[in-house]
Amino acid sequence: MVKVLFVCLGNICRSPMAEAVFRKMVVDAGLEKQIFIDSAATSSWEHGNPVHHGTRERLAKENISVKGMHSRTLEDKDLNNDYIVGMDESNIKNIIRFINGRKTGEVKMLLEYTGEKRGIADPWYTGDFDTTYNDVVKGCSALLKLIEKELENNN
Ligand code: 4NP
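Above: the input record for the complex with 4-nitrophenyl phosphate. Below: its predicted structure, written as tokens.
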């Protein structure tokens, strides 16, 4: 089992989008028994709140549902992930501060898996859920390719 955690500031816009998009890709690839997917926030600001309507509406166009998902803050049990995937540089700084030297998985920004070292814009501020969605798809698709290779090598 490979465990992947998507992380952003509020866990209502970008990381739940990545969680839902990646889950659809994983199910479509028939790998849902081998890849566990979750998401969390570096802050507690939105703890318990549902996914932002902008993310929900953008994903509804792709027939992806975020029903029942809600924000939660990073916690110690999240250290057992193989991939802790932040959305931007600020997320990565906060994740590293949270980890505080403890043993955990690989910490990277989602778009690093595409070879680009840039963050994904926060639609909470930009209002542009399309650009964020396109970046999330790019990153998730590259991450899935990497994990597929890893799973093949373990077989
Ligand atoms: P996210 O966006 O990190 O992509 O979920 C944000 C959501 C909420 C806030 C900031 C960013 N906020 O300030 O509450």
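Notes for the reader.
The radius of gyration is 14 Å.
Strands lie at 2-8, 35-41, 83-86, 106-109.
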